[in-house]
Design a protein that fits this description.
Length: about 90
């Protein structure tokens, strides 16, 4: 990037990467929560995942997906065995 002599280029690339990461997270949350909701409607997931708010958002499924995402980040640390034991107990 330094060879191109464009001083703002690293900032542009950083902004594009951040936008891409946020977009991927939004797509994951949307698709996973809708999939959990659909599974609950078919009886293949717990019934509490069927709940919708007044705008049709499966808010319980969104919360579950967000919690699973947070647990995935915990597994990256050095105490991932502790997290696994906490989940299994």
């Amino acid at each position: 990037m330094e060879r191109l002599q464009i001083p703002v280029l690293p900032s542009i690339v950083t902004a594009v990467l951040i936008t891409t990461i946020v977009s991927a997270g939004n797509a994951y949350t949307f698709n996973a929560s809708r999939s959990l909701h659909a599974l609950a409607l078919e009886g293949q997931a717990p019934k509490f995942l069927r709940r919708l708010n007044s705008k049709g958002v499966p808010y319980v499924a969104v919360i579950v997906v967000m919690l699973l995402g947070c647990l995935a980040f915990l597994a990256l640390g050095s105490t991932s065995a502790k997290v696994l034991n906490w989940i299994l107990k």
